[in-house]
Amino acid sequence: MSSLPVDYVKVASLKPSFQNLNLVVKIVNISPTFVIQSKKDGKQHLAAEALVGDETGTITLTLWEDHIRRFKTNDIVELRGAYTGLFKGSLRLNVGKNGRIEKAKGRIVEVNMKNNLSEKTYIQIPWHLSESRPFKKKRKR
Which residues are CB-contacts of 26 (< 8 A; sequence separation ≥ 6)? Predict the structure, then answer.
């Protein structure tokens, strides 16, 4: 990647809606591939879920298309420009169009399997039911 200094975060510090994350994680396992139909263009895309982690915890990373073939269990990977999101109340790590994932040098000897952030359920409250709505109705005078 680049030679500029980069701030890396640990898995345990991840929360929903974090953006532009840099991490170094170990791939614990990769699920069998499955097909997802895009709502945008109607095309079918291959995807797989990888459990990744470091010494602080684990999280599910979604791999798409060519990333599935490039990586395998026990690979150490560096994620740049990653982001977190919720899928059915489960925290997920993603690398979007602007993010990158590459094999990394270095070692992660032990992965903390006891702290799986994707196993915790987050309750999603639709913004229109929230106490702090982003848009407030104007009062009629």
Answer: 52, 53, 54, 74, 75, 76, 77, 108, 111
The domain covering 11-129 belongs, at the CATH homologous superfamily level, to Nucleic acid-binding proteins (2.40.50.140)
Burial class (CB within 10 angstroms; exposed 0-12, middle 13-18, buried 19+) of 15:
exposed
Tokens of 114: 């006891």
Does the pLDDT value for residue 132 go beyond 70? no
| Boundaries of every domain in the chain | 11-129
pTM of the model: 0.81
